């Protein structure tokens, strides 16, 4: 928690409405995102109860499971969900573009667009991850066959859930997190997980303060929870009798249809408020201009989508239950790199995020007092262009002499700190020596060297490419990590734990029963 | 083992505890007044576990110590708490437990023994201690049978005790606890077995549920250890490893896991020792303090405000009075969560934070540094919202 964000929260308390903590949108928003609001049955292992799904506010489709403990009905639900999600995914496999790789020596293709799924909260992401886990290994033959769309959906849901772990990815987004990235409310992080309360703070209805709107949103009668967990009161008083009525109707088709309609109505009433909030939140986010580096990160999502689509096409194996040692280390490394880059990119895109680094002394904004754009350093073997500029800043200056800085407006140019001199009134004078990004030769291309009077931000954060680490091949897993796996079956490789293979049970008896 | 020793002495000496007995009685009376005419709400492992969440809250210590009906109290003062359990969850939990314990616990015995890495015994005794209405009798019976299970004879078969009733002194009152199962003489020790219906998928469970189960089991371990210590037996005969039995993946098949609850045992014991000082907390509370739901709302609110709470957002998940405390604490940085409060230099009041950020003079020299940071933060924030980088 940065002091800047904490201050915004304090200001939100005083103002009675959420305060911005970003000036641009740090997240790609698809033209037609697929909003998915799942509900789960209490007490069961991730058993679906209902879902509302659709790619536009007016295209809500309600799916329900009238008897969530019934295995066949669960898979029928998953198949119905697949009938909504898979065509949406497929619709993004239209045109593609060539991307050069390996310094132009090769070329690969990626789809021009990718699917984007929005769920209300992180618990929704967990629900989809577990739903993917419960379905991707299902068989279409054998004792309990399921439609082919069920394991396929499972693989896509797993793909989405894995992307959701990837910092900066917008493939599967929890709405509460997307909103918290842009606004600070006057309530705690725990309370921000409740989408209605969070939106109450960000956009309170007329005549109410954010705090009042949030308090109102906590009443489950007025504002049903955004799932996947349902309100226990609703379960006990409304849902349980309706499910019993449906079960009691048995073969009486008229009674059964009536009971089904009643259940559908109940669940629709629980889901519709969240559905509407989701689209309101989409509207709020869309109103923000996208950050400059958002499109670049979406390219990464499109790459991942293309790769997974090709993997599925090529009859590749479903994602394993657990990563092996090497795959886990590589994944962790990938996530860490993504997290670091995402933090830098957000700061570069957004002065309000950069302000957090200015407060901690990792960045400063100053005005150029003097500039020597033609300075040439001829002390080396051959002369090089090394202009110097002097800035004055009022920010706390903790950057040491010799540090290399860069500026968001000139990311290709490095600036080395030569002198740091405290001046009057708490100001600091900084002399920087510039290199790179000024064209070839000993004269800087016009505009490449900051001019006197320019206000600039310099920071130790760098977008520069960091080569990724190398990892051993699976068969060379070091002994510290359990050594090479004994036998490596090509498909799902369950990591051995406690001497007993984790996935030893046959597939058939491990689905919902 | 300090607490256990002390308990042992009181239990053993009887007459020598006259003075403390009187103190306990007067506190009892006082607590009964606070509670009103109602019988005390019983603590259970879950409420004891919840104590560890916010140990510094005096209001909670006194109300829980008195066994006040907090849901009724919260309702009465206009801040009803939305605590409740879905009947689907309750049904599923009961069905799973019954399934696991079916056939005299044969399957359960195999699971537990395999997980402990000991040979699965061919015979084991099964004692159902869950029956009988009379609490004191049940506790005595459980205590007698459990302690009798300690034998030096290694050839004795393993013994499983279904729903034994254990006792624990919480704030000077006997509290009764009912673990799902206690396994004796497996691997030479007692093991608390807890049956939960949340799934373990690919070896991973919901972290929050797992943490709650660990604390709850630690309470049972503590109670069982005290029982042994009170009978002059070695409390370390109770393993710090608890066997957690959960459904595996998305099936109903049970799977056993070991949970090391040493840390939780320490934490719970520390909280219980703190609760023993309820007398001191009572002395600091106003003499006419009452939480009797029958009293007038204004009296209740006025009384509660005299007993300081320490509200934190975590309270919302574990204390029925949390919504009242949150309302009371509005305008305090603590309501935004501890990380926010710390990031604001530990200053309590939102108004003071904003005043310092706006550059108002600092009254307290200790706040100088925090004030400087807040002023800079406010300047940078204004600067960033107004101008591009």
Task: Report the oligomer.
Answer: heterodimer
Number of helices of chain B: 16
Low-confidence parts of chain B: 1-24
**Could you tell me the radius of gyration of chain B in angstroms?**
25 Å
Helix content of chain A: 25-40%
How many beta-strand elements of chain A? Answer: 19
CATH-defined fold name of the domain at 87-272 in chain B: Lambda Exonuclease, Chain A
Give the neighbour order of strands across the main sheet of chain B. Answer: 1-2-5-6-7-8
Number of strands of chain B: 8
Helices and strands of chain A: which structural class?
alpha+beta
Q: Largest beta sheet of chain A: what is the strand line-up?
A: 14-15-16-13-10-17
Distance between the termini of chain B: 61 Å
- Strand proportion of chain A, as a percent range, falls in 15-25%
**Terminal residue distance of chain A:** 44 Å
Summarize the biggest pleated sheet of chain A. 6 strands, antiparallel
* Broad CATH class of the domain at 87-272 in chain B: Alpha Beta
Q: What global shape of chain A is seen?
A: globular
SSE order of chain B, one letter for each helix or strand: HHHHHHEHEEEEEHEEHHHHHHHH
The percent range for strand residues of chain B is 5-15%
Describe the secondary structure blueprint for this structure.
The complex is a heterodimer of chains A (513) and B (389).
Chain A: H1 3-15, E1 19-20, E2 34-40, E3 48-54, E4 61-64, H2 71-90, E5 96-101, E6 106-111, E7 117-119, H3 122-135, H4 149-164, E8 172-174, H5 175-180, E9 183-184, H6 189-192, H7 195-202, H8 210-217, H9 232-249, H10 253-286, H11 294-313, H12 325-349, H13 351-359, E10 363-372, E11 376-377, E12 384-385, E13 388-393, E14 404-407, E15 410-422, E16 428-435, E17 455-459, E18 496-497, E19 500-501
Parallel strand pairs in A: 2-7, 7-8
Antiparallel strand pairs in A: 1-9, 2-3, 3-4, 5-6, 10-13, 10-17, 11-12, 13-16, 14-15, 15-16, 18-19
Helix pairs in contact in A: 2-4, 3-4, 4-11, 7-8, 9-10, 12-13
Chain B: H1 2-13, H2 18-35, H3 45-51, H4 58-66, H5 70-76, H6 87-116, E1 124-128, H7 135-148, E2 158-162, E3 166-170, E4 173-177, E5 181-186, E6 189-195, H8 207-230, E7 241-247, E8 254-260, H9 262-275, H10 278-284, H11 297-306, H12 315-318, H13 322-328, H14 338-343, H15 350-357, H16 368-386
Parallel strand pairs in B: 1-2, 6-7
Antiparallel strand pairs in B: 2-5, 3-4, 5-6, 7-8
Helix pairs in contact in B: 1-8, 2-4, 3-8, 8-9, 15-16
